[in-house]
Design brief:
It is globular, with a radius of gyration of 13 Å. The protein is 33% helix and 30% strand. By secondary structure, it is an alpha+beta fold. Strands 2-3-1-4 form a four-stranded antiparallel sheet.
Length: 97
């Protein structure tokens, strides 16, 4: 299992779309937390995006999950960056293989 840092980028013009889809987005994330696939998530305080920490077998599985996000389906995400991450200290270090 690998850990991935996922950065969402939001356009200022998509605020209404994000507001509409946020409840379903958070429900989706909560279900993935229960499955152990999301370790942490939250918006940047400047409103420009969010950071999500996922576990996935590989990048294909991660991309498949991300396509299911109600924010993505609804058009609320304007940019996306995924990076495999190997924490060596802290709360998630024990998960890194």
């Amino acid at each position: 299992m690998s850990i991935y840092a996922v950065e969402y980028v939001y356009d200022a013009e998509s605020a209404a779309v994000r507001d509409e889809h946020r409840p379903a987005h958070r429900e989706w994330l909560a279900s993935l937390v229960e499955e152990g696939k999301v370790l942490a998530s939250g918006p940047f305080t400047d409103g420009a995006g969010a950071l999500l920490i996922f576990t996935a077998a590989d990048e294909d599985e991660l991309n498949s999950l991300l396509k299911q996000d109600p924010l993505a389906v609804g058009g609320g995400i304007s940019g996306l960056k995924t990076t495999e991450w190997k924490p060596v200290t802290g709360a998630f270090a024990h998960l890194a293989g």
